[in-house]
Fold each of these.
Amino acid sequence: MLPLCLRRLFQSFCVLVLAWGSANSALAEEIELIGRVSLPGTTRDLSGLKGTVAKKYPRDLFGGISAIDYTGSGNRYLLLADRGPLDGAVSYPCRFHEVEIEIDPDKSPAITTRLLKTHLLKDIDGRSISGAAAKSDGPLPPLVERMDPEGIRCSPDHKLYISDEYGPAIYEVTEHGVVCGEMQIPGHFRIAVPHADADQEASLNSQGRQPNKGFEGLALTPDGRYLVAIAQAPLIQDSTPTGKGRKRKGQFSRLFVLDLKTGQNQQWAYPLTETKNGISEILAISPTEFLVLERDGDGGNEAHFKAVTHVDASEATDVSAISQLPHEGLPQGVKPVKVQPWLNLLDERFGLKGPQMPEKFEGLTFGPTLPDGRRTLVVAVDNDFETDVPTELFVFAIPTSKLHIAGR
């Protein structure tokens, strides 16, 4: 038998080994930021456009990234630009880009990018689609006169779907950028009188999406069957005025779910973590599980909420028949989707919090699986086409235990 002192030393060693193993096991289950890349705000795209808009912004300026999606092929992604500089005050041709993003945690840098192609969005007659809000004066435009592209998803059979904030609308688009179809959207998402001036638009409408708060996020389930769009904020009729200009307050944003096989649709209610937050993106894990990018409208030291939540819709009530949701609470028996904290972008361990914290986290997509089995998650930042602000991409490694967590 070992002497008492040796037995105690051995026991202490075993405790340390177990503690070390436990700590490393817990660490392995954490989401890790494995890299980031910044593209200068002066970057030009491959559209071939010449000249400037507003006498300042090159027509081939790369930026304003509102969405990102992995094509499932190699390292190829699609990055979608929104309506252009100056919030739709100028005529900017809408577009999306094909970009190669190589992710290798064992290299330095871990993330590299290369712009491959730029596709200008056009209607079926070959006319360029503009992001100018001024085109909204008068009756709703035909397919498609103007667009504020905010979400993009690529189907397993290579169809593209783009969500538009102006409508709101969801369009089917070819790989080369031709808008070839439009999904049927329930009337209570639409406004009756669109207007280029947001304040006037707000005063002229009593239902539908709030100004510049339409279908900000778009998801396609992995089987390619369901499209899920989410409004950036509660609809006009689902909210109440705050007394500050056109600002409104409501607890629930609506998710619109379209079955591409049957054409049937339903809606779910998403409870905002804070009513002053907005929704930037939604990403499907399964037909009933999603990740949602929810954030405040502040950057730098003022930022206090930048997060990805986990959504379980398996028990959510279809609220399609409820034309007006209460701005607080839901009717008895009506269940919203379940929302849990999932990824806090302000977590100190990621080193993003502080003066350089981006304001507009806008895009969210899964990327390839790493050799160790973890899934990559790419988060894109919108720079609003400001040439002194970079477009940034952040890549996280996600343990499999952090996905498919419904029922836990």
Note: Residues 13-27 have pLDDT under 50 and may be disordered.
Amino acid sequence: MLLSILYIFLQAAKLLRQHVGVGAALFFGFGLLLIGCSKSGTGTPNTGAANLLTTVPSNAPFANASALKQVALGGSNQLFLRADYYTENGRITKPRGLYAGVSGFMLGHTWQPVTGFLEKRGNQLHYTAIINHHWSLLGVRVFTQSGELFEGVMPPAKN
């Protein structure tokens, strides 16, 4: 598959050189090089998602229940949220953690979870996740939309 993509790009550069000139072909090749060398994400190694709830101490005991939520970000990108919480006799007692991850690929866009909140209302958990949306052109970040807000109700855990 990689070879077929390379072949398509070489044919496009050949057509540019024939119809527009060597300068445009070099500009096209340089643009492809910038796109190919661009990095996605924060550049830090993935050592597991951090807990977005900053008020929970790191030595708190593990929760005994969790719920998952998937939110569409656009294109093939999805925001995955996992809420960990404590239960007692089938009732939610308090939230323990909110973890976020982004999957998918869209050229020129990256999303980065910043912070989040979980609130117990009745026997439901309401989540709020704040995400930064980065826009890039040829691998260079040109705009950051800070603080995109995603809110909703976590689905109940399946027993």
Note: The chain has two domains: 2-37, 65-153.
Amino acid sequence: MGPYFYYYDPTYILVFIGVILSLLASAKVKSTFSKYSNVRSMSGMTGAEAAQKILHRAGIYDVGIERVQGHLTDHYDPRKKVLRLSDSVYGSNSIAAIGVAAHECGHAIQHQEAYAPLSIRSALVPVANFGAAISWPLILIGLFLTGSQTLINIGIALFSTAVLFQLVTLPVEFNASKRAIQRLGDTGILYGDELSKTKKVLNAAALTYVAAAAATILQLLRLIILFGGRRSDD
């Protein structure tokens, strides 16, 4: 390990790039959602009403719809089969709110159809959480306490499960948005250019997942650069 580790670490640029990408993506989705939150849908349906219509049209009657506090905290819980919509989506009749609600319905439909990437992502959740939590402790133990390159390599490998989770998340989210736009058009909840405007909201939201994946990959690259090239155990 070179002296830069103790004084100046040039790999921090990778962390900086990841942070910038995440901030830009977050700012984009917030500004886009805010813009189209002011555009009332011609149907006048709220996010919750649109979600219920999409679910029923898909033959799904066992998924509940609940309001959850926060801004853009919307999500589908496959374990409890509940679609939770945030305050800015649940009772809003904007095309932005309807788009977000439809996206979460896309996840419910994926669950109903046993969409493979969603199943894989669900299975990876505990593995990725464990890997992200234990990776740095193992690396530090191997680096400072035992001098074990094997422990360091295990730590890096465990962190890579978080990268795998982020990569699997991408097709899941893009597919949910694709399903959302299709269902909104098929059901007549949105009309004409409302669909293209809502697609902009969902595309902006997708950027946050792309940025998260890029940031995690950059963190893994940093770990490999810093610790992956050390000499193996004797």
Note: The two ends are 16 Å apart (CA to CA).
